[in-house]
Amino acid sequence: ISGLKENVSEKSVDVIVTSPPYNIGIGYGSYNDALPREKYLAWMEEVGVAIKQALSDDGSFFLNIGNKPKDPWIAWDVALVLKKHFTLQNVIHWIKSIAINKADVGNYPNIGGDIAVGHFKPIVSDRFLNDCQEYIFHFTKTGDAHLDKLAVGIPYQDKTNVGRWKAAKEDKRDRGNTWFIPYETIQSKSERPHPATFPVKLPEMCIKLHGDAEMVVDPFTGIGSTAVAAMRLGVPFVGFEIDKEYLDTATARL
Question: Mean pLDDT score of the chain, rounded to an integer?
Fold first, then answer.
């Protein structure tokens, strides 16, 4: 937080994409991820205030945060704390794993049966379902930031929609707020030493959705996924990270 407040000019950032600790007991190298809830929420509010100071008036703050099955309120508790400082313009669901019955898929080519794709880590519980999604809260200062929805759009499956609907001006539609983004395949843990990172495609889509970004910041850089996304898109990036191992990995990826 201090790095953000001291090194980033006020209202100079167009897009912030970040994933702070979720406070669910993950084993980070340089951070206690099991704070008392009120202390964690107070800290997250400090983070929000620092981000608001750096964010431009029409900027976008994309906050990736998840829960654990036995404590599903964490993400929403954070959102409510940040409500004092931002407008929640969109709620995006990052789908990490999905299962679809063939009967619900329809007559898509090359799909002969039920499908289950994405990252799935079973939990040992007869009470809770596997949590196969996380939130991407899209905060803005006023709630009216204009987005380039078709920059992350997908082609219409039913081509008759093109021209039939006034909003369908080309063969591409709004992706909506459910984003299926699987993790990149890795060969060993050394390639992803951070225990809770997101795929590069996630910040890449956030940056594209905002459109015309001239500065991207991630105050919890981790192993540099947002930095890699910004580099791929040719957008200047500033990041902060307190763990040297994660920072070294991020630097190597760049």
Answer: 89
Question: Which pairs count as long-range contacts for 189-195, CB under 8 Å and 24+ apart, including other chains?
Answer: 192/223, 193/223, 193/245, 193/246, 193/249, 194/222, 194/223, 194/246, 194/249, 195/26, 195/27, 195/28
CA distance 190 to 254: 16
Question: In this structure, which amino acid lies at residue 54?
Answer: A
Pairing mode, strands 115-118 and 97-100: antiparallel
Domains of the chain, earliest start first: 2-253 (3.40.50.150)
pTM of the shown model: 0.90
